[in-house]
């Protein structure tokens, strides 16, 4: 079976038409993982036995005519999602032997929707990073060129989609960790509105910024899986009871009449001209389809990275305090350099005498960033910007320079500080390396983001460009 041509939509149809069973489909993916993952390192744990049991159950349900949204579909999870009885490491040796006693809410929902879990995916330890290279389980390689990074921190979830090792993956995005690797790996990646998907049972990074979302090959597939995981959860007090729309409904409506904001502060010096070219041609395409491009300004953008790297470490230092080697974790000595750096930075900005100067000030600027977005969305329906200022970079290129690594997130962190959703959609290739654009919208406008992303994808179905592996 050639899984490289499959999408969730296609596989669902094939399963229904009995072209193959879920066990056969799952085995094809497991074989591919065995064959290819040596080169990519997307998986930390392959759950072969569990997958085959789940696939068998799915086949039984399929034969009874059961019609669950992800019935029999092989998926993978970033290793930050707690999975009952299955090791969950968060990419760190600190949790090398940690076996959770319960499933994250998202995992429960995916299982109830019939999904088949093929494994737990590689990530920067504790989700700190933009390249995947901070993983204690080795870096993930970019399937389009294995000398390059896959992007982080959800490196495994993006690379697993790009190399067709499953049909959908779940990740977390605290400052770009879904959108950036999606862009680097030619995948569709959504960071939903803060609170749209439950964070319960997911290893926390920055609790006021963490968003849970998914990677897929197509926009339609992404809408399909968000339909399963979105919604309020009594175990997560930050998930409001905003109704979950039918995400499939509006997708084919096109962009005619929509106003697309182009934020001037995202087209600055330091933006690779090639990335700019790809973004501009995507904008022209949408204009051709009837959207109006409107220049907008987000004047506080220049402070976003500084604000993010104060607030996030503050929350990280508090969240990581539970891995004290007594309740959880091997011992503090197993924390890597990046986690240590953030614990120190976070403790510093929260300490007496510095709290007002750094943490409080950053929180005030966070409000200004939110106002920038609110103001822009009074004038436009969505905004479009690059995801990353540069193309995927080479393995090792930025590991010695944390600041240059932090700058990869310059266009993604603001939506986390403001809570807005962002969808990364494949937009082109430069020198064989993928480039994505991001579509940013008002809170709870995921349906609109899918609609714009789909309109572009129809014209430019880049998911058909599979890497040579
Ligand atoms: N690269 C950013 C950081 O290192 C974002 C990480 C994330 O979104 N989890 O903090």
Share of helix among residues?
25-40%
- Biggest sheet strand order reads 1-3-2-6-8-7-12-13-11-9-10
By helix and strand content, what is the structural category?
alpha/beta
Secondary-structure arrangement, i.e. CATH architecture: Alpha-Beta Complex
> Roughly what fraction of the amino acids lie in strands?
5-15%
The global form is globular
Radius of gyration from the alpha-carbon trace, in angstroms: 21 Å
- Overall pLDDT score: 97
**How many distinct helices?**
14
Largest sheet: 11 strands, mixed
**CATH topology (fold) name:** Amidase signature (AS) enzymes
Instruction: Detail the poorly predicted runs.
Output: none
Give the topology string: H per helix, E per strand.
HHEHEHEEEHEHEEHEHEHHHEHHEEH
- The CATH superfamily turns out to be Amidase signature (AS) domain
The structural domain count equals 1
CATH class: Alpha Beta
Count of beta strands: 13
Describe this structure as you would to a colleague.
The structure is a single chain. About 55% of the residues are buried. The protein contains 14 helices and 13 strands. The strands form 2 sheets. An 11-stranded mixed β-sheet has the order 1-3-2-6-8-7-12-13-11-9-10, sandwiched between helices. With about 475 residues, it is an alpha/beta fold. The protein has a single domain, classed as Amidase signature (AS) domain (Amidase signature (AS) enzymes, Alpha-Beta Complex). The two termini are about 15 Å apart. Strand 2, helix 4 and strand 3 form a beta-alpha-beta unit. Glutamine binds next to strand 6.
């Amino acid at each position: 079976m050639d899984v490289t041509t499959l999408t969730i939509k296609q596989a669902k149809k094939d399963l229904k038409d009995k072209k193959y069973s879920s066990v056969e489909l799952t085995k094809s993916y497991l074989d591919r993982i065995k064959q290819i993952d040596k080169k990519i390192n997307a998986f930390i744990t392959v759950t072969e036995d569990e997958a085959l049991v789940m696939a068998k159950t799915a086949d039984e349900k399929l034969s009874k005519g059961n019609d669950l949204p992800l019935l029999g579909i092989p998926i993978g999870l970033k290793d930050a999602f707690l999975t009952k009885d299955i090791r969950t490491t968060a990419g760190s040796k600190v949790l090398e032997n940690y076996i959770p006693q319960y499933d994250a809410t998202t995992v429960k929902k995916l299982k109830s929707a019939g999904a088949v879990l093929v494994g737990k995916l590689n990530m920067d330890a504790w989700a700190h990073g933009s390249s995947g290279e901070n993983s204690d389980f080795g870096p993930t390689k970019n399937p389009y060129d294995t000398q390059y990074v896959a992007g982080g921190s959800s490196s495994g979830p993006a690379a697993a989609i790009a190399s067709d090792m499953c049909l959908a993956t779940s990740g977390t995005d605290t400052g770009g960790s879904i959108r950036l690797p999606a862009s680097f790996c030619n995948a569709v990646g959504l960071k939903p509105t803060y609170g749209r998907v439950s964070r319960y049972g997911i290893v926390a990074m920055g609790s006021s910024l963490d968003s849970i979302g998914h990677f897929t090959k197509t926009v339609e597939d992404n809408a399909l899986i968000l339909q399963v995981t979105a919604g309020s959860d009594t175990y997560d007090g930050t998930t409001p009871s905003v109704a979950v729309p039918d995400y499939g409904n509006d997708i084919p409506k096109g962009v005619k009449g929509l106003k697309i904001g182009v934020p001037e502060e995202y087209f600055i010096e330091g933006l690779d001209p090639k990335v700019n070219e790809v973004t501009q041609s995507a904008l022209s395409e949408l204009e051709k389809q009837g959207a109006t491009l409107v220049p907008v300004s987000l004047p506080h953008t220049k402070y976003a990275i500084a604000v993010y790297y104060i607030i996030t470490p503050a929350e990280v230092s508090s969240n990581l305090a539970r891995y004290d080697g007594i309740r959880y974790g091997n011992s503090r000595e197993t924390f890597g350099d990046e986690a240590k750096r953030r614990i120190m930075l976070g403790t510093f900005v929260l300490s007496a005498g510095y709290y007002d100067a750094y943490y409080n000030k950053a929180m005030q600027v966070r409000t200004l960033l939110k106002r920038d977005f609110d103001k822009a969305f009074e004038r436009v329906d969505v905004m479009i910007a690059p995801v990353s200022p540069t193309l995927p970079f080479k393995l090792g290129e930025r590991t010695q320079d944390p600041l240059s690594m932090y700058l990869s997130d310059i266009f993604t962190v603001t939506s986390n500080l403001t809570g807005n959703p962002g969808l990364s959609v494949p937009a082109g290739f430069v020198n064989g390396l993928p480039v994505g654009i991001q579509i940013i919208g008002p809170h709870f406008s995921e349906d609109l983001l899918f609609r714009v992303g789909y309109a572009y994808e129809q014209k430019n179905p880049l998911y058909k460009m599979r890497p040579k592996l």
